[in-house]
Every structure is written in C-alpha cells, then in structure tokens.
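A reminder from the course coordinator: this example appears on the midterm review sheet, so study it carefully.

Given structure:
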C-alpha cells in the first residue's frame, strides 16, 4: 500500500483538492528541526524572520489534472494503477505548493502508462508518466517513484544550458524523501565519496540540509530560477550567504560528526 498522509494531514489534502486556500502547512515540513521555536522571537531581524516564513506558493491552490490510466499492456497492475491515480490527485496540489508554480499551467490530462519493460523504473515525458510493469511487480510498495515523476511533470523547465540535470533530479528526490516518504526511508549519504552533483538522493539530502540550516525558501527559489531560464547556482549564495561548495563542505562535515 502507498504511504498515506497521517490522520492530521487528511483535512489539508481534502482542502487542497477542493481548491480551498491553505495558509500554512507545518505538518508537511518534515525537515523542520524539533529544537527550533514554532514562533519567532519578537526582536528577530527581518533576515532572521525569513527562515520562519512559509515558502509555499501563495494564492489559490493548483488543482490536479484529470488522471487517465493505460494498463492495456499490463492489465494485472490495474489495482496498483488506481492507487497511483489517487496519489497523483492528492499530491499534485501539495507539491505545487512547495515549488514556484505561480505561472505554472498544469496539463488538462495526465496519463499513467504501464509498459512490460523499460530501461528505468519510470520516466516522465510531456503529459505522461510511464512505469515499468516489471519493476512494479518486483517492488509493489514503491509509490515514492510516483511522487518523483510527478515532480518532473510539474517542473517542465525550459531546456537551456544553465539548468543542471543533477539539480532537477535532486529537487524531485527532495520532494519524495522529505515531503512524502516516511522519515525512516530517507537516504544515507557517504561523506567519503559523495558530491552534490551526484543528483537524486544525494542532492536531495543536501537540499534538505541547506534548507533546514539556512533558508526554507531555497528549493522554491532554485525552482523559480530554472523556470525563468536563469542559472540557479548563485541562488545558494544569495539565500544563505555561502556558495554551493562551501555549503557542501559544511554538510559533509556535519555528516562526519
């Protein structure tokens, strides 16, 4: 069965699906440190206050597209596909809230396709996500990949040289492992061999750490830069005061401790 939001999150999911405005989503901020106060002290500076602001996109929530299923080549996966459809319908509005989606226009229809065998467990292209039937049969609990590929559907960055592929994949895994997956499923980074350009889980873990330590608005700001065909790397220094290499060195040092 897919991981579902806890009971206290259900009203939020329902509200988003109905298009109701949501002012704050503290339950989703899984990377918030327990030691931080829930309310900033009155004498905090404007820069310090920015760490406590909800970085989610303001305004009316973006409704999920209509989801259609194509299980013609894997009819035995229809029950799994139905659960994936529900997951997309619930989580598309939530994921949009964590990215810079003010100008994003979701597709009218999103198709979930199931092929007997493809090179990867799944991939997103255009307005469709294609899944490997072989992978699903071997890993029936892997609903996290639905979230990862759904993020790619939402990203849809212009194809320009300043858009690093490692960061695109890192944001998708950040959303998967720090907003959707239960905490015990989070990846472990090897401080001896890893680099922030490794993409996927490593980059996702790095983004989560920088967001937690410096600025919760980091990932939406990176997302916004890439949507506008801008180089996202300077965003790290603009939001944290340190360049990406210095931040990575600090992250690795924290792992070694």
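Designed residues:
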């Amino acid at each position: 069965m897919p991981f579902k939001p806890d009971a206290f999150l259900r009203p939020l999911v329902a509200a988003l699906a109905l298009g109701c405005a949501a002012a704050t989503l503290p339950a989703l901020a899984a990377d918030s440190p327990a030691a931080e106060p829930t309310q900033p002290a009155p004498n905090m500076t404007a820069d310090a206050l920015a760490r406590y602001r909800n970085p989610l996109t303001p305004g009316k929530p973006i409704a999920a597209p209509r989801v259609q299923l194509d299980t013609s080549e894997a009819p035995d996966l229809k029950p799994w596909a139905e659960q994936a459809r529900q997951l997309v319908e619930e989580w598309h509005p939530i994921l949009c809230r964590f990215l810079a989606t003010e100008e994003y226009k979701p597709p009218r229809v999103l198709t979930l396709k199931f092929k007997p065998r493809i090179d990867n467990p799944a991939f997103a292209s255009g307005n469709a996500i294609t899944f490997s039937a072989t992978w699903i049969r071997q890993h029936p609990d892997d609903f996290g990949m639905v979230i990862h590929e759904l993020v790619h559907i939402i990203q849809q960055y212009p194809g320009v040289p300043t858009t690093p592929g490692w960061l695109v994949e890192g944001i998708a895994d950040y959303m998967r492992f720090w907003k959707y997956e239960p905490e015990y499923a989070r990846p472990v980074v090897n401080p001896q061999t890893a680099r922030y350009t490794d993409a996927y889980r490593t980059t996702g873990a790095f983004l989560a750490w920088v967001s937690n330590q410096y600025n919760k608005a980091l990932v939406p700001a990176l997302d916004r830069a890439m949507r506008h065909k801008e180089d996202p790397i300077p965003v790290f220094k603009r939001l944290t005061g340190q360049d990406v290499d210095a931040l990575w060195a600090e992250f690795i040092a924290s792992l070694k401790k």
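The CA atoms of residues 164 and 232 lie 8 Å apart. The chain is about 45% helix and 10% strand.
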